[in-house]
């Protein structure tokens, strides 16, 4: 994700709602900067929110990533769009 050149934000701020998808994504990214692909990040949040055990993660990941996504869902977006 890139920040639009005309974005007024000067720094990232943690999402305010604990346990939300955005808060979980933020926490994972802060914990492992540049350590996750987009797909890995989305699956990690899904696995956490659905309490998927480490033993079932690989099959759950395969099933999760095989789901079709709405057209345009993987388009690049700017943080301030």
- Going by helix content, strand content and strand pairing, the class is mainly alpha
Q: Main beta sheet, described?
A: none
Classify the helix fraction into a percent range.
40-55%
- Return residue spans where pLDDT drops below 50 for at least 5 consecutive residues: 72-81
Could you state the oligomeric state of the chains shown? single chain
Distance between the termini: 11 Å
Shape: elongated
Write the H/E string, N to C.
Answer: HHH
Describe this structure in words.
Mean pLDDT is 83; it is low at 72-81. The protein is elongated and about 40 Å long. The N and C termini lie close together (11 Å). The protein is mainly alpha-helical. The protein has 3 helices and no strands. It has helices at 21-31, 38-49, 57-66. Helix 1 crosses helix 2. Helices cover 41% and strands 0% of the residues.
Keywords:
elongated; 41% helix; mainly alpha; 81 residues; disordered C terminus; 0% strand
Question: Can I get a quick summary?
Answer:
By secondary structure, the protein is an all-alpha fold. It has helices at residues 21-31, 38-49, 57-66.
């Amino acid at each position: 994700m890139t920040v639009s050149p005309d974005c007024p934000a000067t720094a990232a701020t943690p999402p305010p709602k604990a346990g939300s998808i955005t808060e979980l994504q933020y926490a994972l990214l802060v914990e492992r900067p540049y350590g996750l692909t987009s797909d890995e990040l989305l699956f990690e949040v899904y696995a956490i929110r659905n309490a998927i055990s480490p033993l079932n993660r690989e099959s759950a990941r395969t099933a999760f990533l095989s789901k079709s996504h709405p057209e345009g869902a993987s388009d690049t977006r700017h943080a301030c769009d």
